[in-house]
Structures are given as structure tokens and as C-alpha cells.
Amino acid sequence: MREVGTDRLYARLCANQGSFRARLTPKPWRIGLRRAHWLPLSEQGARPPAETEWLRRYEERSRDFAACRFLVHMGQPPVDDPDLARWVALHDERSGALSGKPLA
Questions:
Q1: Same-domain pairing of 20 and 71
Q2: Domain range for residue 34?
Q3: What three-state secondary structure class fits 59?
Q4: Are residues 49 and 78 in the same domain?
Q5: Which of 74, 66, 57 is nearest to 91 (CA)?
Q6: Which residues contact 49 (CB under 8 A, 6 or more apart)?
Q7: 26: closest CA among 60, 50, 51?
Q8: 69 in the Ramachandran plot: left (φ > 0), alpha (ψ -120 to 50) or beta?
Q9: Handedness of CA 63, 67, 69, 74 (dihedral sign)
Q10: Which end of the chain is more exposed for a tag (fewer CB within 10 A), N or C?
């Protein structure tokens, strides 16, 4: 993580939790939306109208952006484990890493 300039707060979070996370979608405030603040779903699973509308706008706006971009391969050879390769491909697809879309 140090070699590629990972954000220090993210690195600390990963160390504290013993894991790392890969963001697949843009952060809301980077695409012109406020952060969503709502309560968990009701027992019936119904979303309040304001939450439903926020999610609709978020999904619509996020289509035009990528959460990350593939820059260069460093280190060991590319993934040779088929199961891991599927996870990498899913990440790249969902995050827009290879899409050429602007970052958000």
C-alpha cells in the first residue's frame, strides 16, 4: 500500500479491520448528491419515498462515472487463480476501472 501511495486513513482502516474494501460505485458527493441519511428499512422492507428517489438519482448519475481506474500492473504476474480472476473481473466491470469514464 505504501508503494502505490494509498491514502493513510484507508490503510489504517484496513489494518484495524484486518481486511480491505474495494469501492464499486462513485461517492455521492462526487457526483453532485448529498450523502444519504436514513433509517434502516421497515420490517416489511418498504423504502420511504425520499430514499427511493435518492437511490434513483444516485443510480442515474453514477452511470456516467467510474469509481476507480486501472493504471498499471505491478509486482507478481497477473492472477492465475480462476476464482480470484472472476472477482477481479467483477470488480473491474462494476467499478468502471477499464471504462475510460471520468472518476468520481
A1: yes
A2: 27-64
A3: helix
A4: no
A5: 66
A6: none
A7: 60
A8: beta
A9: negative
A10: N
